[in-house]
């Protein structure tokens, strides 16, 4: 019996599709890394960066008091009192400026990892490393080590997050934003150890 070529092609295509394996980790960990990323976040920033510093209640009170004192001294015609009031106002203004400068915004780094549990057991904790490689020199440029204590049920996925103060590599600034900082850096995530809810564990060979 001859099978039409069209039917045969469909059968072969179906067999090929069925033979495609489901995404699965290659290291035997029963955990798939779905995606990972990092970003630099500004912290201690609660206002429009172009609006200038915002005075709090105490600063407004001090400034208003100094302005009234200067105004009263000028009305009274007392030159020495005017000079003294203006000098005190400048001192207070310099102090406020120093306080605002010391409270400048800083930066932190947010590392994210999304994983899926293929094990029939629930996961209790994961040890993982975020590794950065200098593509030009082919050497490790940075490594951030994390331990996530998160319950991940069988067949479920979860996003793991860490917000820390240190950058991925020494070449990335902790004080400014630079769009070119990622240039020449390759990234990967390594799963080192998985602890399960039943007390067993998997560890990278």
Task: Characterise the protein shown here.
This protein is 29% helix and 34% strand. By secondary structure, the chain is of the alpha+beta class. The chain has two domains: 22-44 and 105-203, Immunoglobulin-like; 57-102. The strands form two sheets. The chain has a four-stranded antiparallel beta sheet with strand order 4-3-6-7, with no helix packed on it. Strands 1-2-5 form a three-stranded antiparallel beta sheet, with no helix packed on it. Strand 3 and strand 4 (139-148) form a beta hairpin. Helix 2 runs antiparallel to helix 3. The chain is elongated and about 90 Å long. The chain starts with a helix and ends with a strand. The model is unreliable at 1-23 and 46-55 (pLDDT under 50).
Q: Which features would summarize this protein structure in a list?
A:
three-stranded antiparallel beta sheet, alpha+beta, 7 strands, elongated, four-stranded antiparallel beta sheet, disordered N terminus, 205 residues, Immunoglobulin-like
Topology:
Blueprint: H1 5-19, E1 31-43, H2 57-76, H3 79-102, E2 106-117, E3 123-134, E4 139-148, E5 157-164, E6 185-196, E7 201-203
Antiparallel strand pairs: 1-2, 2-5, 3-4, 3-6, 6-7
Helix pairs in contact: 2-3
